[in-house]
Amino acid sequence: MIFLYIDPGTGSMLFSVVIGLVATLYFLSKAFIIKIKFLITGKGNISKEQKKDIVIFSEDKRYWGVFKPVIDELEALNVPVTYYSQDKDDPFFRENYKLAKGEFIGKGNLGFSKLNILEAKICLMTTPGLDVYQLKRSKGVDYYYHVLHAVDDATSYRLFGLDYFDGVFLTGSYQEAHIRFLEKLRGIREKELVVAGCTYLDSLESRLKNFESGGNETTVLLAPSWGPSGILTKYGESLLTPLADTGFNIIIRPHPQSLISEKNTIDSLMEKYTGEKIRWDFNRENLESLAKASIMISDFSGVIFDYAFLFEKPFIYANCDFDMRPYDAYDVPETPWKFRILSEIGIPLEEKNFCNIKAVIEKGIKSESLNQKIRAAKETAWEHRGEAGKIIADNILKKLEKIN
What residue ranges are annotated as transmembrane (predicted)? Predict the structure, then answer.
């Protein structure tokens, strides 16, 4: 007798593929039935009056802070909205909105299949890559908006991240030029660009008073990005060992994607670096760790701007090479804003100086010369502070009026 063995990883992948195919066939069959009904009876099409007015799509609960100010504003204006989430634990489902209605649409292909036949006048999302991968433009959607969820370059997404959206809500005017450059380079139509500010940072800033600082003890927050250029993956023990030897309180907060793409690396480092002075933070909310930190060490992660702009404290960034080839920024001849501004508002750290990291940290904490430059960068990247939710809601309603 011959036994066929499939390892757990392969089995999980095959299972996901099968589930995705079944879900896709299910929703495609529904779309096919609707088309057949229309051909036979002429009554299967959906009129504009029958479409949902506004649909917000969130692929993960960590984006709730982006959408909440917008939904709050629409709720205050008595405007209904439909919220689709791919996360059962999305905080939306714990809110008590009167008009906003939510639905868990399933993860991965299951959720994308439903979105691909969506009937709505306006769809707002943080997910890039519309019409590039699994998430396709539905013929039943009149207008797709993308909202940037961090004060970062708009070209920081993987290739073609924003190309097929109709409109994009920006956090600062500086993001416009590179989008326009790519539109001309690729021969695609111009998108509507609206400088709205950053709902995500507005949400965090409004809640700062609820979190305590780290007090007089020195606390270092290590908050890297993920991928081969991220400092945990690239440097690992060579950085963590001298950092642990400083005797400071250390908070290590890996990027959420690291738990998926680099789980073995994270598990190995967690096993070696434990103790009273070292804490690993995997909470959805990052504000508690940001508030406690005396200084932060990161790489090219957008969290450096969360920290610098919310607390106006300097940060240290590891001088690691970043491969821009898979990203839209690779097609732009100018260096992205975030890499140009890093040297102005942050403290560089090279691998050869890891052995002196305690002195670098102590010098950085005492530095006050960077504060003015941090404030100037904040004015550039985070416009309309506290008003982003209102600006986005107002623009959506104006667009809705035009569609109607």
Answer: 12-33
For the beta carbon of residue 106, count every other beta carbon within 10 angstroms. 17
Residue 310 identity (one-letter amino acid): L
What is the rounded distance in angstroms from the CA atom of residue 351 to the CA atom of residue 287? 28
Return phi, psi of residue 76, to 5°: -65, -25
**Please, are residues 222 and 249 in contact by the beta-carbon 8 Å criterion?**
no
- Look up residue 357 and give its DSSP letter: H
Express each pLDDT in 11-47 by its tens digit: 444 444 454 455 456 555 555 554 554 445 444 456 6
What is the pLDDT at residue 12? 40
Residue corresponding to tokens 């390892």: 7
CA dist., res. 368 & res. 377, Å (int): 15
pLDDT (tens digit per residue) in 73-90: 999 999 999 999 999 999
User: Please, are residues 157 and 129 in contact by the beta-carbon 8 Å criterion?
Assistant: yes
Tokens found for residue 70: 């917008």
Nearest 5°: the CA angle 223, 227, 229 is 80
Q: Are 84 and 111 in contact (CB under 8 A)?
A: yes
